Amino acid sequence: LTNVFKLGDYSVWNLGGKYVFKDLGLTLNGSFGRASYDVNGAGLAASLVGVTDGKLKVSSLVLGTRYEIGAMAFLAQWSETKFRNESRGKNQAYTLGAEYSLSKRTTLYTRYEQIKDKGVGPAVTLAATGIREVPPMAGAAITPDGKVSLLGVGVRHNF
After folding, report:
1. Which has the closest alpha carbon to 74: 96, 107, 105, 103?
2. pTM of the entire predicted model
3. For residues 32 and 61, is the Cβ–Cβ distance under 8 A?
4. CA distances (Å), 3 to each of 53, 72, 130, in order?
5. Which residues 6+ apart lie within 8 Å of 129 measured at CB?
6. In this structure, what DSSP letter does residue 124 have?
7. In what order do the strands lie in the sheet with 10-21?
8. From the centroid of its chain, how far is CA 5?
9. Are the C-beta atoms of 10 and 55 separated by less than 8 Å?
10. Other Cβ atoms closer than 10 A to 45
11. Residue 58 to residue 72: CA distance in whole angstroms
12. What is the pLDDT of residues 106-148, one digit of tens each?
């Protein structure tokens, strides 16, 4: 087994916050972050991955809310992950969900998420290699200018 690509160092930082309106059962949250990936060690010309300085630069913004009423909880989240180099590609996603507490430790849940890719960039050139213009969200691979919908249903039990 050989490596097709070897990325160098990367740096990342995130800043987030959450505020709970306890009497209303409402929670607001958000986070912002940036990352930089060194692709000089990838064995490719940096121009192939849409950069001239040897670094992939990504930023992310997430805004969400949760509303609890009795045993039910409803949530919504919007997020954007953006490639900040020359191509300016980005992924935008939203998530809607509901939860029902069966007991103190067991919850039924459902989630629906839609992720949309916008813009062109290295993904057009390198889609076959697995390199995306924007890192995939929720593990779902997205074709350039495409969209993916995900549905999840399950039971969560805390031990």
Report:
1. 96
2. 0.73
3. yes
4. 23, 47, 13
5. 4, 5
6. H
7. 10-21, 26-38, 55-69, 72-83, 90-101, 106-118, 147-157
8. 22
9. no
10. 9
11. 36
12. 999 999 999 888 875 444 444 444 444 444 445 555 666 778 8
